[in-house]
Amino acid sequence: MILITGANGIVGRQVMNLLLRESTAITAVTRGPGSAALPDDVQALSGDLFRPQWIESALEGVEALQISPRATGPGLGELLRLAVRQGVQRVVLLSATTVEYPAGQARFAAQFQHAEDLVSNSGLDWTVLRLADFAANALAWAPQIRSGDVVRGAYGQAATSPIHEADIAAVAARALRGSVPPGGNPHADRATVTGPG
Measured between alpha carbons, how far is 75 from 57 in angstroms, rounded to an integer? Predict the structure, then answer.
């Protein structure tokens, strides 16, 4: 079984759908009543992972965790300790390229770095996916496009290489299943995931 945090997020939803097509048993954690929107074959858990003690019994039989730092917040360290205690084998963390290539506010890069440190020191086999711009971020421009010919953005000259959430999900699903590319380290791996560019 695989447990996905942030299951209603743009990446979590894609990973869940991909794993379901492969008949993988999934437990999905959501913060609120969004669990009602999950597919029937998914075991839904609703709760606050900022204080994760409540989830310990649900981790029994879980092989791998997908971690969205926004979903776990300050509870990530405790969640990882509970996972180790319950015999979870692997963890996949969704991080950001700003850890390696600083941009924007330093506090965000520091938060992702802290999450990476917790995961890499957890004692679990781990994969960190450092992500760049999601393709779905372009939807923020939709209202401007619908209303006229002008689209305004904070950094009009910026060039990025967005990646579709389904591509992120494919990499995450492979890591969650424990598939490691030839020559890869099955216990520790970092990958920067960006779009074409």
Answer: 16
